[in-house]
Amino acid sequence: MLPHQIELLSPARDADIGIEAVNHGADAVYIGGPGFGARANAANPVHDIERLVRHAHRYHARVFVTLNTILRDDELEPARRLAWQLHAIGVDALIVQDMGLLELDLPPIELHASTQCDIRTPAKARFLQDVGFSQIVLARELSLPQIAAIDQALGPRDAPGRAVLEYFIHGALCVAYSGQCYISHATTGRSANRGDCSQACRLPWDVLDGQGRLIARDKHVLSMKDNNQSANLRALIDAGVRSFKIEGRYKDMAYVKNITAHYRRLLDAILEERPDLAPSSSGRCTYTFTPDPGQNFNRDFTDYFTHGRQIDIGAFDSPKNPGRPIGWLVRVAADHLEIETDDPHTELLNGDGLCCFDARNQLLGLQTNRVQRLGPGSAGGVRWRIEPKDPIDTYRSLRRGTVVNRNRSVAWERLLARPSAERRIDLWLRLHADGDTLVLTATDADGFRGEATLPGPWGLAQDPQSQPQRLRQGLDRLGETIFAAADITIDLPAPWFVPASRLNALRRAALDNLMAAREGGRPRGQRRPEVQPPVPYPDDVLTYLGNVYNHKARDFYARHGVRVIDAAFESHEERGEVSLMITKHCVRYSLSLCPKQAKGVTGVQGTVRAEPLTIVQGDQRFTLRFDCKPCEMHVIGRLQPHVVRQAQRMQQEQPLRFYQRRPVNPPSGARCGTSASTD
């Protein structure tokens, strides 16, 4: 990417969704390969990714593949081979977490530092730039001044080797710093750093104070609302962000279409205001729908820490989609409910999803089996009869006047299930003569040119006055192409008659040559060389938080001056209590129990302290400790014995190699990870 280019980066669960992301305005798409991606259930075969690459490259859009899990020693060679396969089919970049990959014979492909690298400081970002990363995915928790500080630390934006800053602008939020969450592995053996998170953060918890008193019951205190930076795009650009990333490699087609189109429109409006900026790919999009982020699954929205700490960032009542208010409950009858909508234009359809909060503030879902319009309501809306799919007894606790939300619209889903966007590149066509030879020149909005000729001689048309228009109509038949005619010029010495079949062939030949010119002129990134001599890592000690799971990663950090390198949490060397989550989110703050909130409040100041809290869910119990200097929260716990036993059994059945710092006595018949001294 050039320093003045802005990139909209969309997710793809599969190639078909990726193709629609491009059609709806994505400048780049990221997708999981057949393995080693941080979304274990979003894998794709190489041949499907190749299909996406071919489509994206027509618009000079890019395709990135996630290779962003931490790897065991036995996985390094398969990952290296996969990298070469992806390079061979034209993939533009690999998104990487494990630094062991940088010690391998990788193809000359761009490397992007995953959000799993936990990039929060200027020093860390500068280090990753200096070791050869072309693009850096910043932590979601950063504020605008922090982003600007990182941007400044990377040097001039037009300097050779300067990395691009990438930032998540929409979608689900992990409560922990990415790459710094081990609670799933500690309790279930499923590692978030290896693409298999159990999502403990979405569970309901009881919160207890130091004396065991209940502060909150069954609250989803680790569940965040969804990210939405729609109002902050200009400020993010000014802070240095150039790649705007949408979360959602598990999301469906409708989500990707809608959210991509939403941010395409917002970014295009900014580009219209800023002639110094340009999109990083080609073409303009038109849509058959009006994008609306509220129509897709969301937990309500927050812009998180972009403008500093805010109290209302959590989806504490429910991690589900609360939807949008459409009316209120009028009656619960023996076999149906009746509701009244606020807006007389609101239409309900069979299959719509409704929900409301009951007396305990629990979200209660209702899928409609049959809806019937009853007529005008009492307050200017419309009264509806609702027959739910589930037994009516499910809703007996609801009371008249309860607000009703809609969280699934069948009409919206049908709209997005159809073709919903076109992406076209402006084209200028000129038909002229060279002697008695027809010459068609096609020039696109990016300045690429294709030409084709058709030898004569040519007779005169029977209707000379209408012939130029007929030629324009023939040349304007671009429906199956990626182009739209901005202008067609006919510059012939006489009203020659050109048969439609020969004009079609001339047009196709010129466009084929134009597409070949576009492909030949498409920029392709290269892996950037490391700064020499090797730059030192910002710290000379790495704890388990460094996620070093193979010996090549250990060698990488040793080569960059790290003296003590502990093994990843997944190596099971941390048996005592440790931080299983490190978060910018603070439960004390969200419950209005933070000492900083009490500062200056008469009668309260000095009585509120950042003492530990406890969260409990079933037989799981964790301590919340608060580090007020960086304003962070740590969820403290330990590796569960059953996880260790499970790993030992698996190791006996299928010995695996991974990095361990401390010498171990492997179970009988097992071949555990070997260790090299790093002190």
Automatic annotation (TrEMBL):
<keyword id="KW-0378">Hydrolase</keyword>
<feature type="region of interest" description="Disordered">
    <location>
        <begin position="517"/>
        <end position="536"/>
    </location>
</feature>
<dbReference type="InterPro" id="IPR001539">
    <property type="entry name" value="Peptidase_U32"/>
</dbReference>
<feature type="compositionally biased region" description="Basic and acidic residues">
    <location>
        <begin position="519"/>
        <end position="530"/>
    </location>
</feature>
<dbReference type="Pfam" id="PF12392">
    <property type="entry name" value="DUF3656"/>
</dbReference>
<dbReference type="InterPro" id="IPR020988">
    <property type="entry name" value="Pept_U32_collagenase"/>
</dbReference>
<dbReference type="GO" id="GO:0008233">
    <property type="term" value="F:peptidase activity"/>
</dbReference>
<feature type="region of interest" description="Disordered">
    <location>
        <begin position="654"/>
        <end position="679"/>
    </location>
</feature>
<dbReference type="InterPro" id="IPR051454">
    <property type="entry name" value="RNA/ubiquinone_mod_enzymes"/>
</dbReference>
<protein>
    <submittedName>
        <fullName>Protease YdcP</fullName>
        <ecNumber>3.4.-.-</ecNumber>
    </submittedName>
</protein>
<feature type="domain" description="Peptidase U32 collagenase">
    <location>
        <begin position="404"/>
        <end position="518"/>
    </location>
</feature>
<dbReference type="Pfam" id="PF01136">
    <property type="entry name" value="Peptidase_U32"/>
</dbReference>
<dbReference type="GO" id="GO:0006508">
    <property type="term" value="P:proteolysis"/>
</dbReference>
<keyword id="KW-0645">Protease</keyword>
